[in-house]
Amino acid sequence: MLALLLHGNLQYAEIPKAEIPKVVEKAYRPVISTLIKREVPFALNITGFTLEILPKDVINLIKEGIASGLVEITGTAYSHAILPLLDLDRVEAQVQRDRAVKEELLEVSPKLFFPPELAYDPLLPAILQDNGYKEVFVDGEALILSDHLNRAIKPVEPLYPHLIKAQRGEGNRYVNYLLGLRELKRSLKIVFPGKVTLEAVKEITGIPIWVNVNTVVMLGAGRFPLMNPGKSASWLGNLDDIVLYGTDIEFLGYRPLADRLITVDSFLEVFDAFGREIKPPSELPHSGKRLYLRTSSWAPDKSLDIWRLDEGNARLNLLSRDIRGEKAFLAENSDARGWEPLPERRLDAFRAVYESWRGRNERS
């Protein structure tokens, strides 16, 4: 059994706001409609903020998929906030606001939760349980690498560093790509099937998302050198009861990966090459494993550094703690911090901080 999840966030750090209609036209509308037409079940993780700005016809398309049993809606943070960087009141506010939007616009109360950037800490399951969630998506690689809890003592090394270098254009790109493919294939040995029980403040069921599996699927769907849909299926052929793809919908039809644009048709070729039944992630079986997952994300080093170390990020994180109400959601948006955020995205958060501060001072 294989499962599929698509993640949608129109506050994407590297996508200009002026491009949002194009993203909807090139990715959201064709991908969702194609999957529904072909009766491919999938989980749709889409932020509450994104739902509020999607065109009505796309909302109706999603509701059609929900009604037919093909679309499984997940909860997430309303404005794609990095939850372990927030105080607990704000974590719950993000969780509750997102659920309220989905209940209003989609008429559904999700039971699965997808933390933005799979950023997790052991308190999160307790807040999720308190708010009606039964299962949470987690980074599979971080699960495996949680055997040692202190990153200052034992840093986490990326599992396929040469592929990351090739993606960034560092050094000899082709040599790094070839070495990276070998590292990527070797990393698949850590992948295990099914769900896990997470040992946390309140135990919860975890559904692993495997970044290395995602990468193999995208390389095959994009027909990168030495890769194609059949090759991806061959590499992953021994794996079962996993989420075969669990990342951005924007990579399908809109956002190229290393200058190669993946279409929904080439993407589905990978699934077709497997020839296995596709089910919603909630139907994956339990592995019987009980694991502790440390504070982490799906960044290559499994840390939160991308969203906190930069001076601008640190400033936003500090100032955002004093904001409440509507402005807080914009100030907390992770894509103001992002992997490589556009100035306009970062300014949205700074502007929300300023307007909240100025309005508070004027009222007093």
From TrEMBL:
Keyword Hydrolase among record annotations: yes
Sorted UniProt keywords: Carbohydrate metabolism, Hydrolase
GO molecular function: 1,4-alpha-glucan branching enzyme activity; hydrolase activity
Record-linked SUPFAM superfamilies: Glycoside hydrolase/deacetylase (SSF88713)
Domain Glycoside hydrolase family 57 N-terminal: residue ranges: 17-262
BP GO terms, sorted: alpha-glucan biosynthetic process
Domain of life (superkingdom): Archaea
Pfam family, one: Glyco_hydro_57
Family designation: Belongs to the glycosyl hydrolase 57 family.
Protein name: Hydrolase
Species the sequence originates in: Thermococcus siculi
